[in-house]
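so my prof wants the structure for this chain in the tokens format not the other one, which i didnt know existed until like an hour ago. anyway here's the sequence
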Amino acid sequence: MTSEEIGEKRLAEVNPPLEDQSRRLWDLVAGFETGQIFLAAFELGVFNLLKEPKTSKKISEELNTHPTVTEKLLDVLVSIGTLDRIDGLYLTAPNMAPFLIEGEPYFARYLKFSLESREKLINLKAALKEGPAIEGDKHEHHYDRESIDWIARGTMLGRLQATIKLIRDLPEFKSARKLIDLGGGHGLFGIGFAQENPQMEVVIFDQPGVAEIASEYIDRYGVGDRVKTMSGDYTKDDIGSGYDIAFEACSFGGNAEQAKLFYENVARSLKDGGLFISQTFTIDDDRRAPLRNLVWDLKEEISNDGHMHLKTNSEIFRALGEAGLEGEKVIDMSSDLSMPMRLVIARKRG
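here's what i got, hopefully its the right format
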């Protein structure tokens, strides 16, 4: 009796009983593994040491690490594109060097926060059992000249240009005559807006010390006749009035109480019908995306350090509404940027 006669199928023709998810699961695990390898290399200073080509043996000696393990780690770093290997010599990949070598103008300082995040997530099981930290480490941001210049350079890598182009196309922008850039730092957003609308006056508002640095950027771009600075605390100090547009780019991350004060102050400063445009990180109302923001939200919850208070789009619209600002739309900028940012646009009710 043949296999066909007893009802068996040829194995090559059998349809899989369901779609295999192994690749997806392996990708999830591999993401953690390669991330750990990369961060270990970053923490050890591998990329700094490989500013010039070296053998794995030389790197092992300088790091005082096991030679064979070190070589295999370096090979992984070559595979993920952070190192190059030429004739047995390892070198920080030229396209990555500006971001990975400490002291370079575009050095990715934020990776140091990732080292802290790694510890939080390694201990995630304990946090799930025990709950959030009673009181986390509070981040103090000190914006000196070096920091402001570094932020300005990073902004110029595409975020500034994409943001200005989106906002300049709004009908309200073309007719605007007065704009305030809140938490403007280097002032490049406000300067760019002034360049796009020659009839508009711009105020760059930031804390004392930072506004003075913005003044130098204003002079550099030759728009000092229409772009001025003002300093203070935008959650409580007078920021002026009669603005057609109030703009802020990732400068505000306060809690609900601070947000109430901030939004109310913004509403007081705007003309009836004026726009408030906030470039920020939000979570979709169904809490399915963006993935990176959801991960940040989880880390903030377990660490309780008050670094970033993420909200869903609806939660932000609700908070704006309580301050007299009507949320109109959210523009997703993720396709243009390396970070999942959105533009939240609201209008002052007349």
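also thought this was worth mentioning. The chain is about 45% helix and 15% strand.
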